[in-house]
Amino acid sequence: MPRTFPVSLADAFPTVAATWHPTRNGSLTPDRVGTGGPMMWWQCPAGHEWEETVISRRSLPKWKAGDIAACKECVGFKTRRVFPGCGCVKTVRIGTREAEHAKCFNCRTREFEENAPRIKAELSAAAKASAGRATKLLAAVRLPDGMPEGLAVEWRYWAAKHLQYAIAGEKVLGKAGETGRVLERVTAAAEHAVPSLEACAEAALRDGVLSIFGRAYWAEGWWHAMGGELVPLQPASELEEFTGAFRDVLAGWVEDWPAGRPVPGTTAEVTRNLTAVLRGFLQELAEEDGGRVYAELQVPVIPDGAGRYGRVDLLGWSPKGIPAVVVEIDSRPNPSSVQKLTFARDLGAVPVWVRFGAGPVEDIDGVAVVDARETVRALTERG
């Protein structure tokens, strides 16, 4: 059979071909495979055997130190280990966590899959039980000078979850040293947690979002909290225009409700539907200017009685200095929403409060208040 590759492994890389396993590759030989062949068996002069693709075998990573035919075991990059917990013999990289486990990766994975519900339950229980220890460990971490207390609370909340599961991992899964490793990571994260004014401004222009501890924060809100310049408040005419637009959208939402489709019967269902329809409306506005819409975006405001930063239901962001649109949706009077909306107002954003359900609807200076009580009632009463 004529070969289908331009050059064979034997011709292109004779020193690599010399480590071709003499008996474990069937009828294939180095002169019958190309330089990009499949997974094959190899053997070094010392007798070490392993499987590896041809393209990987003839590559030249740093560990080979210039010797393309080098063996990982011979140069001390990897070692053959008998895992005491399962008896498997594997070649593992020296100094890695894999070399510390009692069982090999495949056996650990299979064991976890077979016992996943039980293991997850044990991990969850162990994590909850480790809350006290995690709190003590985090209390000893020195946080950066000038870190806002609210951000420190966010860090403790985020770090505690990781640390609790690290402690649980040591107990349930036998991950030796996991607590120390995670404590180092969360400590390092705290050192770089406070965003600079420049970073906030850059994120506000890029996409409107600042990432802290893996969560999305309103970048412009942080810019303001860090001392950024305030912009003029929105004029009353602008707020009235938004109020009218939101009312029209909600009226159309009710009018266009498909016949025969179940109407939302609970407060949670109404809230989900309102959020969806208003998100679609904001998306249309934002797309005109290349913007985006975010849900549950965190803001650097700690409402009265709360311990952590608040989140806004919807935020429409647009580039080119166009004011953001911040929306809160509530079924009753909510002081926390008022605080978040007035924070947005003071930034020069367009704050919109959509109110439905029980309780009075109060006017708030500088906030577009949309009274949706009758509109929502007209829909829910259809059911």
Note the main attributes of this structure.
single chain; 383 residues; alpha+beta; Trna Endonuclease, Chain: A, domain 1; 11 strands; 16% strand; elongated
Structure overview:
It is a single chain. This protein has 383 residues and is α+β, with helices and mostly antiparallel strands. The chain folds into three domains: 68 residues, no CATH class; 77 residues; 145 residues, 3-Layer(aba) Sandwich (Trna Endonuclease, Chain: A, domain 1), CATH 3.40.1350. Helix content is 42%, strand content 16%. It contains 14 helices and eleven strands. Helix 5 packs across helix 7, helix 6 packs across helix 7 and helix 9 packs antiparallel against helix 10. The longest helix has 25 residues. The protein is elongated, with a radius of gyration of 30 Å. The mean pLDDT is 91.
The backbone outline, from C-alpha atoms, is elongated
Rg, Cα atoms, Å: 30 Å
What is the beta-strand fraction? 15-25%
**Structural class based on helices, strands and sheet pairing:** alpha+beta
For the sheet with most strands, the description reads: 5 strands, mixed
CATH class of the largest domain: Alpha Beta
Give the helix proportion (percent range).
40-55%
**Number of helical stretches of at least 4 residues:** 14
Number of strands: 11
Can you list the strand order of the major beta sheet?
7-8-9-10-11
Distance between the termini: 75 Å
CATH topology assignment of the largest domain: Trna Endonuclease, Chain: A, domain 1
Uncertain segments are none
CATH architecture of the largest domain: 3-Layer(aba) Sandwich
H/E series, N to C? HHEEHEEHHHHHHEEHHHEEEHEEH
Number of domains: 3
Average pLDDT works out at 91
